[in-house]
């Protein structure tokens, strides 16, 4: 497939890298000549006279006009956009182009707090959700082309209406950004010497605060109705917590955290298909070469997949601790197997 991608930033270039691995021919286009040159170098891109597919990976302000231009200039090409706010985009494109059947709208639910093609990764979309916008105007060929792109990028496709999309991304994408940025703004007023005391928790919550302000300004204003609803909900919860703390309402404060625990458990695992109901097995390892490889090899022998892992090792200590996240059904089998092989194993109650 011959593919032209308009926009050589993080998302556009990451899609290109994934499609390159799938055997596609690429041509990267950008108003920034250096960004375009870098993206074409990374993807071995070159000019394509008649692309089979055009992906619009530009900012929201120019998204619609670029879609319409691509449809009108390339009558046989399928056109896909990846904008993160939809708000009747499909209907507006249909009004402006007689070729709207070749257009399908989408939004990959992945990104990084750093932008630009130099930050692009071919695996950025692996095990991530990718939303397709349902429309009777999109042809079967257009929808099938989106399915090909999503599969090639390692993501899972979910079909939603444009309204459903804007409402859900306001909560699961826009709101986390707002909370992280709000906290970072508060920290900006804190004495730097005091911040030397900060632990990893603060850094984890503030990671998104490094995001591009111009991009997020456009997103929040464009999706303001859904965003405002979620801001109001968060304010209500924080005000309620403040009242509970002020009144020494221990049960109310505890419920605040218990509700959050339940919410965390709802976040799905790989491809959004299964919950993260993992069991955690800690294994004592010696500080010597090959220890991790031996454990992985033993897991492979009993056909058990490691979903995640963490390693704790203090400098100068002769032993460390590796904690494996595995499916609940595999816990007893792996625990018995590693114990039989001479490893010291311990169950971790929760993470």
How would you characterize the overall build of this protein?
The protein has helices spanning 10-21, 33-43, 60-73, 89-96, 140-152, 162-187, 200-206, 213-222, 224-246, 250-265, 291-301, 331-340, and strands at 2-6, 25-29, 53-56, 78-81, 103-108, 129-133, 156-160, 278-286, 308-312, 319-327, 345-348. It is an alpha/beta fold and 351 residues long. The strands form two sheets. Strands 2-1-3-4-5-6-7 form a seven-stranded mixed β-sheet, with helices on both faces. A four-stranded antiparallel β-sheet has the order 9-10-8-11, with helices on one face. Helix 6 packs across helix 9. 29% of the residues are buried. Residues 271-275 have low confidence and may be disordered.
Structural class: alpha/beta
Top CATH class of the largest domain = Alpha Beta
At CATH level 2, the architecture of the largest domain is 3-Layer(aba) Sandwich
State the fourth-level CATH superfamily of the largest domain. Answer: NAD(P)-binding Rossmann-like Domain
Distance between the termini: 45 Å
The percent range for strand residues is: 15-25%
How many structurally independent domains?
A: 3
Query: What form results from the Cα inertia axes?
Result: globular
Question: What is the alpha-carbon Rg in Å?
Answer: 24 Å
The largest sheet, given as strand count, sense and whether it forms a barrel, is: 7 strands, mixed
Strand tally: 11
Total helical segments: 12
Overall pLDDT: 90
Strand order, largest beta sheet: 2-1-3-4-5-6-7
The CATH topology assignment of the largest domain is Rossmann fold
**Low confidence ranges:** 271-275
């Amino acid at each position: 497939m011959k593919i032209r991608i308009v926009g050589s930033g993080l998302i556009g270039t990451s899609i290109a890298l994934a499609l390159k691995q799938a055997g596609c021919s690429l041509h990267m286009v950008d108003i920034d000549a250096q960004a375009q040159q870098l993206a074409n170098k990374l993807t071995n891109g070159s000019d394509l006279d008649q692309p089979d597919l055009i992906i619009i990976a530009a900012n929201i302000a120019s998204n619609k006009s670029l879609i319409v231009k691509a449809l009108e200039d390339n009558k046989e090409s399928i056109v896909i956009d990846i904008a993160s706010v939809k708000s009747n985009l499909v209907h507006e494109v249909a009004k402006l182009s007689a070729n709207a059947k070749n257009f399908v709208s989408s939004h990959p639910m992945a990104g990084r707090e750093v932008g630009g093609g130099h930050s692009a990764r071919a695996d950025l979309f692996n095990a991530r959700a990718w939303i397709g916008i349902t429309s009777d105007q999109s042809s079967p060929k257009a929808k099938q082309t989106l399915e090909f792109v999503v599969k090639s990028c390692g993501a899972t496709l979910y079909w939603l209406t444009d309204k459903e999309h804007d409402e859900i991304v306001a909560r699961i994408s826009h709101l986390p950004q707002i909370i992280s940025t709000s906290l970072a703004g508060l920290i900006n007023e804190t004495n730097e010497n005091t911040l030397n005391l900060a632990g990893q928790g603060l850094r984890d919550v503030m990671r998104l605060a490094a995001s591009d302000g111009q991009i997020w300004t456009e997103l929040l204003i464009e999706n303001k109705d859904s965003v405002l609803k979620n801001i109001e909900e968060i304010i209500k919860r924080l005000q309620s917590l403040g009242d509970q703390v002020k009144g020494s309402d221990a049960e109310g404060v505890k419920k605040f955290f218990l509700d959050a625990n339940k919410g965390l458990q709802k976040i799905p695992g790989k491809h959004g298909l299964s919950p993260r109901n993992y069991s955690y097995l800690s294994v004592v390892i010696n500080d010597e070469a090959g220890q991790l490889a031996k454990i992985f090899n033993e897991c492979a022998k009993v056909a058990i997949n490691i979903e995640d892992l963490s390693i704790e090792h203090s400098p100068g200590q002769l032993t460390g601790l590796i904690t494996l996240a595995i499916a609940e059904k595999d816990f007893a089998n792996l625990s018995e197997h590693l114990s039989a092989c001479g490893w010291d194993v311990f169950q971790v109650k929760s993470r």
